[in-house]
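Need tokens for this chain, all 199 residues.
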Amino acid sequence: MLFSKAPACGWLVVGLGNPGLNYARTRHNVGFRAVDALAEKLGVKIDRARFRGLTAQASAGGEKLLLLKPQTFMNDSGLSVMDAARFYKLPPERVLVLFDDISLSVGRLRVRADGSAGGHNGIKSIIGGLNSQSFPRVKIGVGKKPRPDYDLAAWVLGKFPAEDKLITEATARAADAALEIIARGVPAAANDYNGAGPQ
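Here are the structure tokens for all 199 residues:
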């Protein structure tokens, strides 16, 4: 009886953000912070340059993971994700993305199995790179613009004020949600984490 060779990587877990210290604590970089929180939980450091990003290999729930922080800048995140997914021959359903969402209040989470970009350029780029919307995601609320005419780029590239503690807690919960998606699937994680966070 023939057995297929086990894949070198079962999941690609991507945190979205922009490289460089200038962006480190901005709203747009909570995906980086969430995947860093996941790396810390798994005892690894995301510091190996591969796939136009920084990576770390880890294991969780009996699965081998590649953690990825694209270094292409947000709007071209899909290039890095596409490179890694192709190398490991992963379907979109095995590409898990953690990122900021302005439609959610600060610190709230939302787990989804798929969906459109919703105006997020990083997600738009990944949809283009994978040629699919069918990848799971954990959205981390960073709050709405203070007024309709406020510049969106200025908002997402702005830094958190007093709510930063909420975001630190939210990125840790997002890391836990990612682990639950891997271990038990999207529906279970959505049930446990959707709406989690400050009311």
